[in-house]
Design a protein that fits this description.
Layout (H helix, E strand, L loop, with lengths): L2 E5 L14 H5 L6 H14 L7 E5 L8 H16 L5 E6 L6 H8 L3 E9 L3 H6 L9 H10 L3 E8 L6 H13 L4 E6 L7 H7 L3
Parallel strand pairs: 1-2, 2-3, 3-4, 4-5, 5-6
The structure holds iron/sulfur cluster.
């Protein structure tokens, strides 16, 4: 199985988490359908067709995009699904951008797995990172995704401001209780152009 990552940096995201500069992380500065298409065409020239291949929209909050733009992006992967070049799609988004209308759309376009950027299940840590959502919003989002038949991934982060080892342990315990299909654990990095980098430079 090959993952075909398509970066849509900051697309759909009205937030600025203190650690995030998606444009730097992904190296992809255009959050546009044309840029997504270009990335997919590149993968298409490098890989063999397989229903085990999965296209993956990363780097933004996919379900925060206007529905029409989500449809335009999913039309790109629909074409690859139709010809059997890929067998499924995954995407990442935020727990507070999950509702029935959004999930109905994803269901119609071969989306298999939805990864939620959770980072922590400790409200103090979420507030310090200026995430803009609470820990309590995660479990209902996971439950709704499961009710719609999606596999669920939880993205967690370690090394965040205000985060103790005990807080990480508690987050992991709560994450396990939600029975995700996938969990990713990222280390927090101080990346240029982020509020965290400014804090770092100021010795905070
Ligand atoms: S919600 Fe995700 S994309 Fe948006 S600023 Fe935070 S980490 Fe970056």
């Amino acid at each position: 199985m090959s993952i075909l990552p398509i970066f849509i940096p900051h697309a759909g995201c009205p937030h600025q988490c203190v650690f995030c500069n998606q444009k730097t992380i992904s190296g992809q500065k255009l959050a546009a359908v044309a840029a997504a298409k270009e990335q997919l065409m590149r993968w298409r020239s490098w890989l063999q067709p397989s229903v085990g291949n999965e296209a993956a929209f990363y780097g933004g909050s996919f379900t925060g995009l206007p529905l029409e733009l989500q449809e335009e992006l999913l039309a790109l992967t629909d074409a690859l699904l139709a010809e059997g070049f890929i067998g499924s799609v995954r995407l990442s988004t935020r727990p507070d951008y999950i509702d029935e209308e959004r999930l109905q759309l994803l269901q119609q376009h071969g989306v298999r797995l939805v990864e939620l950027g959770v980072q922590s299940l400790d409200d103090r840590v979420l507030a310090a990172a200026e995430r803009g959502h609470t820990a309590a919003q995660v479990a209902p989002a996971v439950a709704l995704l499961k009710r719609f038949g999606f596999q669920v991934g939880l993205q967690l982060m370690v090394g965040m401001p205000e985060q103790s080892f005990a807080s990480v342990q508690e987050t992991v315990r709560k994450a396990i209780e939600m029975h995700p299909d996938v969990a990713r654990i990222y280390p927090l990095l101080v990346i240029k152009g982020t509020p965290l980098a400014a804090d770092y430079a100021a010795g905070r």
